[in-house]
Amino acid sequence: MSDCNCNQNSANDNSAQVPNFAEAGFAEGNSHAQALQTNAGVAAQLEGVHALKLSVCVGASYNASTNKICFTIPIYGNYCVTSPVHIPVGGQIKVCAQTCGSFIPTGLKATIYLNGSVIANITLFGAC
After folding, report:
1. How many independent structural domains does the chain possess?
2. Computed over its alpha carbons, how large is the radius of gyration of the chain?
3. Share of the chain above pLDDT 90, in %
4. CA angle centred on 110, ends 21 and 24, rounded to 5°
5. What is the rounded distance in angstroms from the CA atom of residue 8 to the CA atom of residue 97?
6. What is the band of 16 on the pLDDT scale with cuts at 50, 70, 90?
7. Per the domain annotation, does 87 fall within a domain?
8. 34 in a domain, yes or no?
9. Which domain holds residue 114?
10. Which of 60, 92, 53, 93 is nearest to 76 (CA)?
11. Domain-embedded: residue 83
12. What is the pLDDT of residue 38?
């Protein structure tokens, strides 16, 4: 992802932590969990969408020469943030993100995990 036109953000935000959905699942506290389970494998139909709530975990890459963690959030695009810690070779980086707001997203917050431990909570855009 080194040649992407990524949005630059700081990894020093004090936002609330986004759960690691890969471990916790979507059921607790998410009213759209049943729809996600029912529609598994069905392509998203987003034309004419007036509201959207998104909860996702994605893999990320680390560029040691720039100290940037880069990842792509479906629908919202590519992001790169400065890593707050040294990432060891072979470290597993995951980013879990969630929209803020009710019907209309007011922002997008994320938590960055390194080998299963939280290393940063950030707001990617808007207010959370």
Report:
1. 1
2. 15
3. 50
4. 15
5. 16
6. confident
7. yes
8. no
9. 7-28+51-126
10. 53
11. yes
12. 36
Where residue 27 falls among pLDDT bands split at 50, 70, 90?
Answer: low
Concatenating the DSSP letter of every residue in the chain gives -TTS-PEEE-S-B-PPPPP-HHHH-S-TT-TTHHHHHHTTTPPP--TT------EEEEE-EEETTTTEEEEEETTTEEEEEE-SSPPPTT--EEEEEEEESSSS--EEEEEEEETTEEEEEEEEEE--
> Parallel, antiparallel, or unpaired for β 77-82 and 7-9?
parallel
Using 50, 70 and 90 to split pLDDT, how confident is the model at 46? low
Residue 41 lies in a domain: no
**Residue 98's pLDDT band (boundaries 50, 70, 90)?**
very high
The mean pLDDT value of the chain amounts to 78
Question: What gap in Å lies between CA 87 and CA 93, rounded to an integer?
Answer: 9
Q: What is the pTM of this model?
A: 0.69
**Could you give the CA distance from residue 73 to residue 68 in angstroms, rounded to a whole number?**
16
